[in-house]
Amino acid sequence: MAGKFELFEDKAGKYRFRLKAGNGEIIAVGEAYESKAAAKKGIQSVIRNAADAKVVDQT
Question: For 11-30, what is each residue's pLDDT tens digit?
């Protein structure tokens, strides 16, 4: 099963998203957004930028 983004409203009334792997495990969480539209833009930014992102090992 493919991963998915879940868009939701938190207890404070802010919009957030989380990325879940195919097995249901949460693998990324977005910040709090004032609007649903802004949260959707955040999801699109992750989709656009993650494919070419480099891994920087800072250990």
Answer: 999 999 999 999 999 999 99
Chain centre distance of CA 49 = 12
Task: Give every CB contact of residue 2 below 8 A, 6+ residues apart in sequence.
Answer: 22
Query: What span, in angstroms and rounded, lies between the C-alpha atoms of 52 and 17?
Result: 21
Q: Which residue type, as a one-letter code, is found at position 47? A: I
For 29-58, letters b (16+ CB in 10 Å) and e give ebeebeeeeebeebbeeeeeeeeeeeeeee
Which pTM was predicted? 0.85
